[in-house]
Fold these 2 entries.
Entry 1:
Amino acid sequence: MLAVVPPPITVRVPSKVNLHLGVGDLRDDGYHDLSTVFQALSLTDDVTVAVAEDPGVEVHGEGADSVPATQDNLAWRAVRALAEHAGLDADDLKVRVVINKGIPVAGGMAGGSADAAAALVAAAALWRLDIGREELTAVAATIGSDVPFVLHGGTALGTGRGERLVPVLTRHTFHWVLAFDRGGLSTPAVYGELDRLRAEGDPPRLGAVEPLLEALASGDPRRLGGLLGNDLQAASVSLRPALRRTLRAGVEAGALAGIVSGSGPTTAFLCEDADAALRVAAELSGAGVCRTVRVAHGPVPGAKVVSDDTAPRPTTPPD
Ligand code: ATP
């Protein structure tokens, strides 16, 4: 008799940039209250989950060497969490997770969270789970605070630790240039540096988010450019002073505005349109201030199945 093995499922997942990242005071649980506006960008990772006799994780692409190919990988943790949630035997996971990274590792663009979100969608499809988006979002939030956003994509206002999301109305597509730094930055280290800087004398805090929400609804990149802001930027620049030069170089190359993305050290430059983004990218890559430059646009949708091989494949029976 032929055994039927479900086909592998590949999911494409976006990265994120925070257009506004307001960081409140340190809470008793060690987290900070955030008020943030995320936008999902077309710089993506692909994650494939397949039934396999040799379970485990493989990582390829951008920064693969610094991503754990172990049970600590966020994509693996997501698959495990979903199995437990669905009542499957999590200790007997016969799946292989293959990650193709385009999102820089430890770059402030939620790369690990993106892989977790993609793995949730892929595993739910592979196991044909009857699970709605809301339930999947609840599992996502147990993995990390950015996971629900990259699951949903678009543009959203996040509160709490960033995991409580409300969609934000935007008009038109915005065009970005991303400058990858030569190394990564640890998110906890950047928050720690912000606490230290605040204890010393408070770098100014971001104002209200409403003007930025209005700019997004207008679709005018010039208006949006003037309102981008990130409370973590002072801390990232304090830990990586060369970012000051990168931020200046992007604006000198013609970007409307530049910010550190999340906890950094990736810098994100908003451009007038797609052609301007290509010009800024070319000039910035010649300026020698960063490792690599990419163009991207947003908002884009969240984690989505892209494999079209949906028919179960018969396998040769064992002898
Ligand atoms: P954020 O923007 O959410 O703060 P980040 O983009 O700065 O995150 P990540 O790329 O998510 O950072 O990586 C943070 C750390 O998580 C890495 O140093 C890496 O060791 C670990 N990690 C675990 N799984 C993954 C994964 N699938 N992809 C990337 N990093 C992972």
Entry 2:
Amino acid sequence: MAAQETVEHKYVYDFAEGNKDLKDLLGGKGANLAEMTNLGLPVPPGFTITTEACKAYLATGEEPDGLADQIAAHLASLERAMGRRLGDPQDPLLVSVRSGAKFSMPGMMETVLNVGLNDRSVVGLSAQAGGNDRFAWDSYRRLIQMFGKTVCEVPGEEFEHALDEAKRAKGTTNDLDLDADDLRGLVDEYKKIFLKHTGREFPQEPREQLDLAIRAVFESWNAERAVLYRRQERIPADLGTAVNVVSMVFGNLGPDSGTGVAFTRDPASGAQGIYGDYLANAQGEDVVAGIRNTVPLQELEQLDKKSYDELLRYMARLEGHYKDLCDIEFTIERGKLWMLQTRVGKRTAAAAFVIAGQLVDEGLIDLDEALHRVNGAQLAQLMFPRFQLDHEFQPVAKGIGASPGAAVGKVVFTSARAVELAAEGEDVILVRRETNPDDLNGMIAAKGILTSRGGKTSHAAVVARGMGKTCVSGADELDIDIPQRRFTVAGQTVTEGDIVSIDGTTGKVYLGEVPVMPSEVVQYFEGSLDPEHIDNALVRAVHRIMSHADAKRRLAVRTNADTGADAARARRFGAEGIGLCRTEHMFLGDRRELVERLILARTDDERDEALAALLPLQRDDFVEIFREMDGLPVTVRLIDPPLHEFLPPLEQLAVNVAVAQERGEDVAKEEALLAAVRRMHEENPMLGLRGVRLGLVIPGLFAMQVRAIVEAAVACAQSGGDPRPEIMVPLVGAVQELETVRAEAEKIIEEVTREKAVDVLIGTMIEVPRAALTAGQIAEAAQFFSFGTNDLTQMAWGFSRDDVEGAFFWRYLELGIFGISPFESIDRDGVGRLVRIAAEEGRAARPELKLGVCGEHGGDPDSVHFFHEVGLDYVSCSPFRVPVARLEAGRAVVETDGSDSR
Ligand code: ADP
Ligand code: MG
Ligand code: MG
């Protein structure tokens, strides 16, 4: 056999070889260090070991072939460039070993500084620093501490404890008061701790330190907290991390040295300016650890004007280059500035809009790119009322923002109590360690839910999101005692009835009532804030970006609205019609009595009378809605739920009958109702006598509704309006169902519009899988399809939403069977496929077929992108989601239809 030629895989990249677009391979940190190097910024030289090396290591438990040699070669060239050798006793090169994945995972993975120090090179380091023994021993003790903790799993507290001891012995609380001898003593202590926990001496061989540190970074990818974090943030589990080996620069060499972080704009508000913190005479991790108090970055101007000015120049340079907010780590070593990290910075929802708007003004990006940089989830966040926190309020705990909103109320610890107090008109916050399906009633009754355990996929989080209810989960500082009905947090005890405020966006928990203020963005959408005339950067930015989204989008956005008031509000939010007007509510309230008569009718005449009495009432409802939506399409769905839903519950009727009999009253009507309820009982109402089936079974029911709709439209048209009714038949599974209803409806339309011509469309919901699969036939009888993706999801999966969200969804999410609830975001593979088939086959049969969606998915960002891709004409969602859908429909165009600006 011929000798196999081995093409060596490249696992190590010098900073000069990489660039910012290689994040997959080099991780975010490595790619950006390379970018800064190539921009000519002062980055300490170094190299990056790729994510591929990490993946190979994690798969086999061994470094892949060639990696060790490549590291040796890059280390040698680093040593040449620096004129020093790693751990050289006379003049050592030291390096940091830093993790860095494609997506930043703050605090999740490991970094070790000062690698290369040992008992001998510590002396060389001191000489190098002009005889600064204190600095050298401080660096050494930091190495043992970080290495021990992150590479060898020595409990960090032990080192911290020894450090505290040393300070106590010295009578100080400040690290800087420890002198060289104290630190030398501390190094001895640290080594003992290391030996005790690992059973071996602290490794003195520099290359061994380096290799072990690299392994530890690889392995940190699979550390439990990293795994949890990824699951929560939906970061794929198989990316791996890169490892950066960077020559050390020292911020702890004296008062002319220091370290800091900087943002090119305020990541909270987006405002322009200099934001950051600086700490003199310190190494990087001290800033984050909060060991000593930092000073605002501006003060660096006094301390070291030259470095400060230089830093500002680089910040401007980086912003211009990345065309976005940058977040920067730097260190000053004896008056020389070094750049240690940059990335496009995280920001709040408000800052995202403000910054995108500013960057357009500055000519750095165009509006397409601005649209790309914000999203519907952020916009939705900005539409919730917010806590007004400019006062004295400090959070007492921070959990996970599991379902957004700002909720204030009295604390209760049981579901039963929540229901009781809510019935008395109180706002309550249900506090539990974690919730389970038994808490459902309490969750419904509460304004908000607060738990001490569980993450974004816990029962509480999933159910609260489904209900649109504010929820903070996993606030583990809370010590909850359910039997005693109290919890303690930050040294305070909160008992039942005390008021708390919870922020479901930030996860923060406050004691007492934090004032809530309405969202400015909602005020803008409602038309009460004029973006041209107010000085509000956020509102102006939202206005600008929304206008662009509207100009770009191909999908129309309608709303689901059942009343004139909802229709009016949605129209102000930009709705271009109603995609779903449910008629159920038109059978409720004081009309129940008529419905009962309809159900109990023994003769055709009795039934017709009941229907005739309902007709004018429904007609008035439609008139109101057509007026509010004048000139825009209004899709009215004929009655959908089973009729027994309009009758009192069985138990209640049984009791009524018994009580009335006892009193000797006439119970004929109650008995008849009871009999009807028994007769109409369904084991599985979702799959029972509802939708089009009702229309085919109860003579005159649909006819009455059709007549009410068309008469209302004619009335509006006669008074000069422009009504655009679309009649929608629910739950169709076969074309024959639709044909039957349609034939009857057309007769009525023909008759009623003789007075005044009005165009009326007739179409159907596509919500039964069979309808999707026979869409070609159904389109022959339908002028439009509206996908009812809630029912379609239920029927495609074979589960009912009400039963499953509390019962097992949390478990499915935990197991990863779903990445997200299929009721929250459309299941592209299954339900989405049905939508695609129906859209294609429907259009093939009838090219002018109008296609829309009226399930809740119509307001979900990901789903909107999917509906855009499938080529639907519109989405319809609740009034509050209309702006979100508009924004995402615009984003779908710039993202799917090609814009190279990502
Ligand atoms: P994280 O991702 O947690 O920020 P980093 O790898 O950025 O971890 O490093 C932790 C700290 O150590 C940061 O403050 C960083 O600036 C500092 N640091 C990292 N490498 C060096 C180095 N070569 N010289 C000086 N400081 C460093
Ligand atoms: Mg960092
Ligand atoms: Mg339905």
